[in-house]
Amino acid sequence: MFFVLSGHFTFSWTVPPPGWRTPPLTQRHPFLWSSPSCSRPLSTRFLSNLFISVVKDSRRFHDLSADISVGPHGMRKFAASYSAQVGLNEERVKRVMGFSSTRILRKNYVAWVPPLRVPCVLPGGTFLPRFHEMSGSDSD
């Protein structure tokens, strides 16, 4: 099995072991498979390494240093911080991200982050930046 990530890397899976039954497409999780025809779920370690590769590849593509400490947990903190910064519903963010209380969310995950300037999907909803000041006629 092959699949391409961000147009630069190609990863491959080995053939499933003998006797491995491929579940029907309707029984597979829609996102956690390497390709629609592969029935082997991806491990947390593999997904984490894939995520780190995407971030570092993106930085290299934009002529930025790829020598940074990045991982899924750090991105989780960014997501929580940006959700708070743009004023998304805190209860919804807490529920979507799986926190037991808003106190834990605020204390351990929300910190200052630079303002977002691009559209972004966050745990509490989609953020669309406003590129101009609204006039009275825009809000009708």
What does this structure look like?
The chain is an alpha+beta fold. The protein folds into two domains: 2-20 and 30-61, no CATH class; 72-127, no CATH class. The protein is built from four helices and four strands. The chain has helices at residues 44-61, 72-85, 90-97, 102-109, and strands at residues 2-5, 9-12, 120-122, 125-127. The strands form two sheets. It has a two-stranded antiparallel sheet with strand order 1-2. A two-stranded antiparallel sheet has the order 3-4. Keywords: DNA recombination. GO terms for molecular function: DNA binding.
Q: Mean pLDDT across all residues, rounded?
A: 74
Report Rg: 19 Å
The strand order across the widest sheet is 1-2
Task: Please tally the helical runs, counting DSSP H or I stretches of 4 or more residues.
Answer: 4
Helix content: 25-40%
Structural class: alpha+beta
TL;DR?
The chain is of the alpha+beta class and 140 residues long. The protein contains four helices and four strands; from the N terminus they run E-E-H-H-H-H-E-E.
Write out key terms for the chains shown.
alpha+beta; DNA binding; 140 residues; two-stranded antiparallel ribbon; 2 domains; disordered N terminus
List the helices and strands and how they pair.
Elements: E1 2-5, E2 9-12, H1 44-61, H2 72-85, H3 90-97, H4 102-109, E3 120-122, E4 125-127
Antiparallel strand pairs: 1-2, 3-4
